[in-house]
Amino acid sequence: MEFNDDEFLKLVKELDLDWTNFMVHEHDYMGEFLYTFDVTPEDFLIFAKENINLKTKKGLIDGMSNAKRAIECQIDSIINFLGYDYKIFDRRNSYQNTKEFINTHFAEDTVDGITDRIKLLHILGVTPSFLISKIRSLRNKVEHEYIIPTLSEVKEAIEIAELFINSSMRKINWTIRGIYFGSDYRYEIRERYDGGNYTISVVNPKYLYIGTNNIKNGSIDLILIRKNNNYDPYDYNESSNGRLEIKNENSIYPYILLIFFTKKYHYLSNVLGKNLKKEHIKYYVQEP
To answer: What's the whole-model pTM score?
Structure first.
């Protein structure tokens, strides 16, 4: 079911979460990140390194341009991966709720030359802070200064691009991520294969599941689990569970992304419409 305010409020009310005492279970499926385009960021890096080996004016200019293309290709691929259309993301009238989220959470002093795409990735922790100024400087050299870059400048640009690609890939090395949480939980003692025991925490229905199964299509699943039939995290075929589809135009969509990337689960209050202060929220995290 597509998002509906009334249905959403009913699910939140039925969940009846105790914000001072709830448990979060992380539920991830690791997989291969697939690029959007025929030419990958790594391809552009290879081109850039081949360019500087020419040691000509054209080689230096092309090397700088390909380093920039490597960064842009990586950014656009991640934006698409997050369920947005990279071609329209920076337009003034697109994804208004996400733009408001960006304006609220982007804390850098200098914003000149930084696109909304980069700002979002920075908020999510995909782009390290020190790379913001580096990327800005690189963009200016390529687009606004009609000068031939030096060999050392091009090498630095390639290093920046390579660092950004590698660091961001470590952040998006999952293809499906989910969390489920609730206040009705208990601890159980289980037996290991070797005969030993271990303690595990179990969240009982009712609990809420949020998952990125359909994120590439611009939607995130929000499901109130009423019955899981002993499946973890829930039985996909159980019709009694309440399901809503959170679209990328919804105001809570970027907050869910923020939770998945930063694991700051106090933002669940923003998702569930409570907007509580961080110090008033107490939870325990059970990692996968």
So the answer is: 0.90
